[in-house]
Amino acid sequence: MIERLRLFLTEEKISYLIFGVLTTAVNYVSYWAVRGPLAVDYRISTVIAWILAVAFAFVTNKFFVFKSRSVRRNVLLREISSFVLARLASGVFDIGWMILAVEWIHMNDMLAKILSNVVVIIMNYILSKMFIFKSR
User: Fold this and answer.
1) Domain limits for position 56
2) If residue 62 lies in a helix (H) or strand (E), which one and from where to where?
3) Number of domains, the chain
4) Nearest Cα to 96, choosing from 84, 82, 112?
């Protein structure tokens, strides 16, 4: 049992989880800061929170999780473009889920945001590992 856990909980996965939690915090706090005090529509708040979270996630994923050290222009352009494209896919899920949950299911928007982020973290790890920062 412990050996199986060690195989699953690699350094990469643990750091992804840590930075995933921090990215989620950036997303959630940004959403709250724009939505709450500024009373911005939840859809616009979701987009702003997403942009800030993606910027934070790219830097932490590149350098700390997947340890992609290259700063050559062609490598950076490929990584950034594929990262943003993958995050757009999860961002579409995020905004789609928020609309479905808040407007159709009438779920509390903060609870919907938490549930969305769980799915988004899993999606983003798989896309980052398999397509963006894969070993060449």
Assistant:
1) 11-132
2) none
3) 1
4) 112
